[in-house]
Known about the structure:
Blueprint: H1 2-19, H2 33-44, H3 51-59, E1 70-71, E2 93-94, E3 103-104, H4 106-121, H5 145-148, E4 155-157, H6 161-172, E5 181-185, H7 190-202, H8 207-210, E6 211-214, H9 225-235, E7 239-245, H10 257-266, E8 270-274, H11 286-289, E9 293-296, E10 311-314, H12 334-337, H13 360-376, H14 378-400, E11 412-414, E12 427-431, H15 435-444, E13 447-448, E14 450-452, E15 456-459, H16 468-487
Parallel strand pairs: 2-13, 5-6, 5-7, 7-8, 8-9
Antiparallel strand pairs: 1-3, 4-10, 9-10, 11-12, 12-15, 14-15
Amino acid sequence: MLVGIQHLETRRAVKRLQREKQLVMEPLPLELPADTVQRIASELRCHPTDERVALRLDEEDKLRHFKEHFHIPKMQDLPAIDLSLVNKDENAIYFSGNSLGLQPKLVKTYLEEELDKWAKMGVYGHEVGKRPWITGDETILGLMNDIVGANEKEIALMNGLTVNLHLLLLSFFKPTPERYKILLEAKAFPSDHYVIESQLQLHGLNVEKSMRIIKPREGEETLRTEDILEVIEKEGDSIAVILFGGLHFYTGQLFNIPAITRAGQAKGCFVGFDLAHAVGNVELHLHDWGVDFACWCSYKYLNSGAGGLAGAFVHEKHAYRIKPALVGWFGHELSSRFKMDNKLQLSPGVSGFRISNPPILLVCSLQASLEIFKQATMKALRRKSILLTGYLEYLIKHYYNKDTADTKKPFVNIITPSCIEERGCQLTLTFSVPMKYVFQELEKRGVVCDKREPNGIRVAPVPLYNSFHDVYKFINLLTSTLDSAETK
């Protein structure tokens, strides 16, 4: 009954958004996840929590073969595993793609190709092969277009996320006595917070007065879109830049990027996004939404490996209006770059923000993953993700909602929004029992997720390599964990 009520509330919330004609990022699927689960259970004549439902969902999953493109860790290789609780030869339940994506099998092949080229021909590798080292980053730009919804000339693959944040803010944040604030969400990822703080200090501004942080309402975990828009409307004349995370790393909330962008620009603000937890997770249409600038890392949902090559976006409308504050050799037009006359011919747009030659080994690992995305398509991945995470949510709410009749029974709270348009694949869970105990017991049982202070465990079933049966098995392991907590 409780699941049904929450399901109805989700429908009402979506209809309310549509009535208000807010620009939402993705259309509602024809069938909500709970409806799909219940329909299949009815067809199979079993309870929605039955294992057969998960197996049927996997049978109908047209993307299920993509997991074969990845190395999935085995139980026996995990450092925190308790081998007495698991089958050592089974795959781990890897729900940590929001922190570090799994390794595509082609990474090793592509790395060996470049290492072999280096060994055999040395410096000639700069100009020959399928990844000439001088233009290595540019050879894979086309694979990013659909993932972020941008033109190739609006994208650069360079540096790390925080470096790109600094480079972009140096050019977009030009404070005046009247317009001097940067707007961000509460408890933003440290990269965003530290970058904004240091940029304000660089301009000699008072951080407390210039760093405008929007907090959720009292007693709520996530921000309401209407509250964000209200702050922009009231204070927009004093805000120079809005820099939000596209998706909040802790709560898993997906912000309404187009609505925030339109509201900010209507007040004369530049609007940018840190898409670290959104890229490769949800559909993005940066060009069509008119976002001014954005950046992202690539080692989470884009599976490029720890410290992988990051990305940046500058809308084409700024190609000749916004120039980099700091320039380097690789921001110079390729056609005359090697004349070495020290007369800068700056590449227009985001390409001019590049500082140094591309790290070809990082290009290799990113290419291996982006090619998989090209085959799968973001639209299909997002469609599966909605159902995959919806199935996880359905089972958690069925088993672990707070039981007023049994106050000693452990319960699980999902702080991530229930509305599918306001989240990606991640659910952040809090518990009535100590979070650290739950996390340690899940690790012993081969579940790879992560904990985040103050009290959340983040679980992220990734559509490229996670299955519905993974979700089913996770729930069984969570039950075992909570049962042990209850008897402890």
